[in-house]
Design goal:
six-stranded mixed beta sheet; 5% helix; Jelly Rolls; six-stranded antiparallel beta sheet; 42% strand; globular; mainly beta
Length: 185
């Protein structure tokens, strides 16, 4: 397994070791010991599964008081996965990174707690699995407008389909500080 920091070093790109032969392939998708050695602390308490069609954009979501770290994998298809640092006081506050994840490259992205997360679907459909370090708490759910011009994310898609809820989210500059996670060095 290979772990590489992205332009925001806390966001990690994981490339699992894949064993392939004439029967297909085998890969380890998670090992607490190996991932902890890579800087992914865990523990993970919840797994989520998302199925989306081409052109869908989901996000950007985060939790305030119980922020979730997420380990994102694509089971089928291709997505452009994005993490935005929402932590007040962080040296990378308001910056984003994105990675293409697919069933072909089998890469994973670790999105730390305190980051907003979202993805756009680049293939006909995409099945996405992600492990979370905290349980989902509806009252704690927050979001960032996917098209915030101050953030400037290039989603790869030109005219994505976005939920009404996600279209109504606020720009970073309009989110009060009490609705943002705090950076803890």
């Amino acid at each position: 397994m290979q772990c590489d920091p992205t332009d925001i070093p806390e966001v990690l790109l994981i490339t699992p070791k894949v064993f392939q032969d004439s029967r297909g392939f085998f890969m380890e998708t998670f090992s607490q010991e190996r991932y902890a050695a890579c800087g992914i602390p865990g523990p993970f308490v919840q797994d989520n599964y998302s199925h989306s069609r081409a052109g869908i954009l989901r996000g950007l979501h985060y939790q305030l008081r119980r922020p979730q770290g997420k380990l994102v994998s694509v089971i089928w298809g291709t997505i452009f996965d994005v993490a935005v640092d929402m932590r007040v006081g962080s040296p990378t506050f308001g910056r984003w990174v994105g990675q293409t994840l697919s069933d072909q490259n089998r890469a994973q992205l670790y999105v730390p707690p305190g980051f907003a997360h979202g993805f756009s679907v680049l293939s006909e459909k995409a099945d996405v699995m992600y492990k979370c370090t905290e349980y989902y708490v509806p009252a704690d759910d927050r979001g960032l407008l996917w098209s915030d011009p101050d953030i400037g994310i290039d989603w790869v898609l030109k005219d994505p389909t976005v939920s009404d809820r996600d279209k109504a989210l606020r720009r970073l500059r309009d989110i009060p500080p009490e609705d943002l996670p705090q950076y803890r060095a």
